[in-house]
Amino acid sequence: MSEARVRGTEPIQMPTPHGTFEVRAWRGRDAEHVSLLARGAAWPGEGSDASQPPLVRVHSECATGDVFGSYRCDCGEQLEKALETIQREGGAVIYMRGHEGRGIGLFEKIRAYHLQDLGDDTVEANVHLGLPVDARRYDDAADILRALGMGRVRLMTNNPEKDGALAGLGIEVAEIVPSVIAPRGANRRYLETKREKMAHRLGPSHD
């Protein structure tokens, strides 16, 4: 396990439409990240289900989805669902900056979108640009979770690569909690490609 290479700020209270979160910024290896923590019913020492590990969403930055509400992906809706659920149950959203476009960056992501407009799927577009299908790393996320005292978590994800990566970095994933968003016409092919080519757990609602 690598030595921790993240540094966090003091926590602040941030009110949102989903409730108030305890927020910290983190300086990592190559980017700055954000953690949003909520103490819900599953939080240790509180509520009737306090023995349950905290619910965690490691969310990859997506300017088009998270900021502008793009329907080309389901990222914005995934983030909103995670904030709502974690505010209720207790846990944290780890917002990973530097993960735009599965790690290729915003410029290359828009180039990949252009190829998708011409017929490529999300995997083919990256390959045709000579880029990795997924270039994300989770070292900073694992270090942030440890710094928050979350070495054992329930992970809110559909991506098997994510839970495998965190487990390989020393985070015990006690449970996978799927986060399925109903497809839209604009993102149905994108979601089907993630299920068929990237083994995402998207379930029958995407059939």
Task: Characterise this structure.
With 207 residues, the chain is an alpha/beta fold. The protein folds into 2 domains: 10-60 and 74-97 and 136-206, GTP cyclohydrolase II (Rossmann fold), CATH 3.40.50.10990; 100-135, no CATH class. The chain has 8 helices and 8 strands, in the order E-E-E-E-E-H-H-E-H-H-H-H-E-H-E-H. It has helices at residues 63-67, 75-89, 100-103, 106-117, 122-128, 139-147, 160-168, 188-198; strands at residues 7-8, 12-16, 19-27, 32-38, 55-60, 91-96, 152-156, 172-177. Strands 1, 2, 3, 4, 5, 6, 7 and 8 form an 8-stranded mixed β-sheet that branches. Helix 7 links the parallel strand 7 (152-156) and strand 8 (172-177). Helix 4 (106-117) crosses helix 5 (122-128). It starts with 6 loop residues before the first strand and ends in a 9-residue tail after the last helix. The mean pLDDT is 88. Its cofactor is Zn(2+). GO terms for molecular function: 3,4-dihydroxy-2-butanone-4-phosphate synthase activity; GTP binding; GTP cyclohydrolase II activity; zinc ion binding. It catalyses: GTP + 4 H2O = 2,5-diamino-6-hydroxy-4-(5-phosphoribosylamino)-pyrimidine + formate + 2 phosphate + 3 H(+). Pfam families: GTP_cyclohydro2. The active site is at 134 (proton acceptor), 136 (nucleophile).
Outline of this structure?
The chain has 207 residues and is of the alpha/beta class. It has helices at residues 63-67, 75-89, 100-103, 106-117, 122-128, 139-147, 160-168, 188-198; strands at residues 7-8, 12-16, 19-27, 32-38, 55-60, 91-96, 152-156, 172-177. Strands 1, 2, 3, 4, 5, 6, 7 and 8 form an eight-stranded mixed beta sheet that branches.
